[in-house]
Write a structure and sequence with these properties.
Ubiquitin-like (UB roll); alpha+beta; 2 helices; two-stranded antiparallel ribbon; single chain
């Protein structure tokens, strides 16, 4: 069986962009990846922040949501206000 390589575009917004030091990235994998797996592959030295929001193809999702080849995963800091 031939294993295909998935390519996932990763985007960071607001304060995450400054924390990570980039606005986008790209990761690839040979197996099924969840949103949290994508974070770990793209940011090996930075822990996944608590209460982070994530979206796949502009739809908010949970961190355990699986992604597909060609998907865009976006990470947002938690919304604060008052």
């Amino acid at each position: 069986m031939v294993q295909t390589i998935m390519s996932i575009k990763v985007r960071y917004f607001a304060s995450l962009k400054e924390t990570i030091g980039k606005s986008e990235d790209e990761v690839s994998g040979e197996r099924t990846l969840s949103v949290s797996d994508v974070w770990r592959l793209a940011n090996q030295s930075t822990e996944l922040p608590e209460n982070i929001l994530a979206a796949v193809n502009m739809d908010y999702v949970g961190l355990d949501t699986n992604v597909n080849d060609g998907d865009e995963v976006a990470f947002f800091p938690p919304v604060t206000g008052g």
